[in-house]
Design goal:
Blueprint (H helix, E strand, L loop, with lengths): L12 E12 L10 E16 L4 E2 L10 H10 L6 E7 L9 H16 L5 H16 L5 H8 L2 E4 L9 E7 L2 E8 L6 E5 L6 H13 L3 H20 L3 H17 L5 H9 L4 E7 L6 E6 L4 H10 L3 E5 L7 E2 L1
Parallel strand pairs: 3-4
Antiparallel strand pairs: 1-2, 1-12, 2-4, 2-5, 5-7, 6-7, 8-10, 8-11, 9-10
Helix pairs in contact: 1-2, 1-3, 2-3, 2-4, 3-4, 5-6, 6-7
The protein binds (R)-mevalonate.
Length: 322
Amino acid sequence: MTQPPIPAHALPVVARAPGKCILFGEHAVVRGQPEVLLAIDLYTQVAIRPSPEWRLNGHAGPVADHRYLQTAIREVWTTGTPLDVTAVSRIPKASGMGSSAAFVSGLVAAMGAVQGGVDRATLAQQVFTIEREAQGVGSPGDTSAAIAGGYLTLNTDVAAVGEALWTVTAGEERWTVRRIADPGWVWVVAYSGLPKATGPKVQAVGERFSSWEGPDLLRRFSEVAVAGLRAMAQEDRTETGRLLEENQRLLREVGVSHPRLEALIEATQPAAVGAKVTGAGGGGSIVALPKPGQETDLVRRLARAGAVPFATGPAARGVELV
Ligand code: MEV
């Protein structure tokens, strides 16, 4: 389904963008390998209004230190008029569910609306450039999910599949983003309560990828993601679950799991066909694919284990004005 562009709109503007959950290929996607992810139905809503000075959630103080806002002002806000930016989010911060990508996508879509409207491919590049500049590292998976909604894959031109949405670049690096079919499943994402820091984790894993064992690790990440994509296309839940577990073994090997996340993965049994860390790891969240009809039991098990679980389907639409 092709998403309409963000239309022109005068101030004040309110936009909302969904979070994301990575199923296969996080970290390796930064090195151009395949990734499979979906936008989830937890949203960040961003409102922008005229203001005598720049404000964030009603206060001028936090504006100067907010890297994402500062970068967005510099990169896309050509009118120069100060704004009052208000963000309300249901996505836990630093949870691996894409809260920063959703914030920047909502903000830049709202700014784009005021500046005459913006198409999604342009938005995908702008938002990724801002995230990458503010964070220093990363791929356009999270930002593309917030902008496109639904299920997506990156870098699977060979194995794939659906409509090509856009290609996003950073210097010499490029990532192609495609839409893939919705297998029709409910996923359970559970936040451990341990915040994670994406930048340092991506850097540490990047060092492993640059070492002698890097090529073999990247090949194994890629194989699991492509096999996962195929299993999902065939709506093969059992095989998808097995591959989630295989992806988790790789994430453990590159050091982004955590005893608390392992305990949550264990707590998903026997209600899930598979579970893994989702996102940068080291904290953050896990994702589990429930056995048919066991969604509620799975949520209960994870809550009992001390996590904050969400049963989620895909957010069908990406960022939009509200
Ligand atoms: C973070 O959500 C996913 C990583 O692969 C980093 C990125 O792709 O930007 C760890």
